[in-house]
Design a protein that fits this description.
20 strands; alpha+beta; elongated; Elongation Factor Tu (Ef-tu), domain 3; six-stranded antiparallel β-barrel
Amino acid sequence: MKVKLAAIALIVIGVGSVLLVVVGPTFGASSSSKYDTAVVTTGSISSTASATGTIAASTVYGLKFGSTPDIVSTTATTSGTGGSVTSNSNSNSNSSATLIWPVQTVSVTVGQTVTKGAVLATADSTAAQLALASAEATLASAQSKLTTDSAGPTALTKAQAKNQLSQASTAYSQAKANKTNTNAQNALKLSQAQAAVTAAESGGDPTAIANAESNLSSVQLSVNQSNQQAAQQVTNASLSYQAAKLQYQSQTAPASTATIQADQAAVAAAQVTVNADQAAVTGATITAPADGLIIAVNVLPNVNAPSGYAVEESVGPMVANCSFAESDIAKLKIGQTASVSISGATSSAVAGTLTQIVPVASSSGGSSSVATYAVTVTLTSPPDTVLAGMSATVTVTTASVDNVLRVPATALEGSASSGYEVLVVDGDSTTATPVTVGLVTTSYAEIQSGLTEGETVVTGTTSTRSSTSNTSSTNVDIQSLTGGSGAGGPGFAP
């Protein structure tokens, strides 16, 4: 009997020793541990990035009488500042900008939706029509001159120029002939006066000699003057003839390239003025440039329109302008889907598409700040309750896979460099199994190889210190496989 009792005691002690070996490393004193597990499933995995922003219309038009629509603001940008771009451009011509526009009718109110081409307001166009008539007259004159210069001189012009040249040539020839005759006559007079002096000297009469010499002096003076006058007439006739030849060349030659170009420039400038004035006449009726919402009406009937915009219209689609942190911007791509939460307009998220990423930071990151980048998401069929200026939270799907094996991300152990593995639960034991992963998010990890659907994997452990206090390892979301703190509980293997 003593031997049997001793044997039983040894068996009990041995079992106790075994139990301590198995449970000791897991439980330790009065505490116990248990696994959190999850089942390998097939489903979708999505990675997202989020940011807050503001709802805006993609374009706001400013409408004036006598001009084409101005873009007051637009989400399209080529700058690095991001967000919307505001423009104060004025498409009025100088003439239409100075016109007075007496408002006749106003057909819309703030908050009214309109369709493209709808008449919004009208004004008296009398002043614009007068300006157009004057511009058209100037254009006609410029076109006439261009036509005349391009065609070259007419036959009548050429005939007149030739006649003037012939007359000048005849006058020049006549002047030269007159000079020759005058010179000959003067030479004869001078010869006769000299002969009279010689005859007087032969007679020896002092009085006759003195009279003859005096007459010779008078004739010489007269001859000199007459010859000079004849020579001057030839010179004048020659100059007139040269001028006539130049004039003939000018009147019969085609217009120069410079003249044609100047005429063409004058026509182009006149046409621009006509186009602007015609647009001003047409602009006496303001119409909606697109389907949209009227956001401002600044005119009244029977009152002259102000110099600013008479009507402003916002045009869709609506967009969400937001700023993403530098850590997310590399993941964003044009065309990615987004979900936009607008608590002030709807309880349901509105679908959208990422349509613009400004590649220059809109805020600089310093020692205490993070650089952000402006991003625009275009909303897809938002409800009418979505209005510009509302706050929005934008969540962009940066990556996604469908119909793949997945496990909670907390099941992964290891790293990208050393490889990953998971603990697969097999009855009361676990096996470290290497896996190949694809897309990994904070929630799920895609399993490309190593596991099959339906297997159970460990996602963490929970330590129970007392009946009222539990401590868990990080990232544990699922309760343990089994309960209890006694020896031999399932899932605990050396």
